[in-house]
Amino acid sequence: MQESKEALIIFLKYPELGRAKTRLAASIGNEKTLKVYIELLNHTNLITKNLNFSKFLYYDKVSENKLDWKEGNYTHAYQTESDLGGRMAQAFEDTFAKGFERVVIIGSDCYDLSSNIIEEAFKALQNHDVVVGPAEDGGYYLIGLSKMNKQLFTEIEWSTEQVLNTTIQKCKAANLSYRLLETLSDIDTIEDLNPYLKQIIK
User: Fold this and answer.
1) Are residues 48 and 55 in contact, defined by beta-carbon separation less than 8 angstroms?
2) Could you tell me the strand order of the sheet in which 74-78 lies?
3) What is the 3-state secondary structure (H, E, C) of 131-147?
């Protein structure tokens, strides 16, 4: 049994030309998009490496390629083949099965996400069933559970502006206590990227 009862799961893709951020690539091309995604990964590494939780890098496909994040003691794992809900549900189930009691999933595309916000999420799970970090596009950049509930990941139209609202309604229907964090912006499109251009594309 692991010492920590808290696990952070990071959903990501290994950075390869043409694989990440396809909506953004339609506007700025694959090469610039790859630079943006690598910068987003570097930011994700920066804000998570010193966190005192067990950390899992969940890649979207099985490959020999692994991120070389030397600091932070990350464990490599793989998402299952499914829609986003199925992949998150399986990652949660796998992690709870290892004996963890509070589990949080983040992506790798939120430049405003900070260590403090992630720590706040875990703190919220000490007295809530669910914690959610709302994204400005109607989705979420973070979700955490203190107990498994598959219903939160089924019958949701992913990548739409209804994701957050549907998730909250599911919490209410299942009598799950939930806490919302501050709203942040994911970077999926050129409009999302514009406020960060000077920071990200150097």
Assistant:
1) yes
2) 74-78, 54-59, 6-12, 102-106, 140-145, 130-134, 178-180
3) EEEEECCCCEEEEEECC
Please report, as a single letter, which amino acid is at residue 88.
M
Cα 158 from Cα 162, distance rounded (Å):
8
List of long-range contacts for 16-22, beta carbons under 8 Å, 24+ apart? 16/65, 21/109, 21/187, 21/188
**What residue type is 104 in one-letter code?**
V
Distances (CA, A) of 152 to 73, 156, 199: 29, 8, 35
Mean pLDDT score, 72-78 = 95
Contact between 183 and 138 under an 8 Å Cβ cutoff? The reply is no
Tokens for 69, please give them: 């994040």
Distance (Å, whole) CA 171 – CA 176: 5
199 pLDDT more than 80: no
Confidence grade of residue 76 (pLDDT, cut at 50, 70, 90): very high
pLDDT tens digits, 28-62: 999 999 999 999 999 999 999 999 999 999 999 98
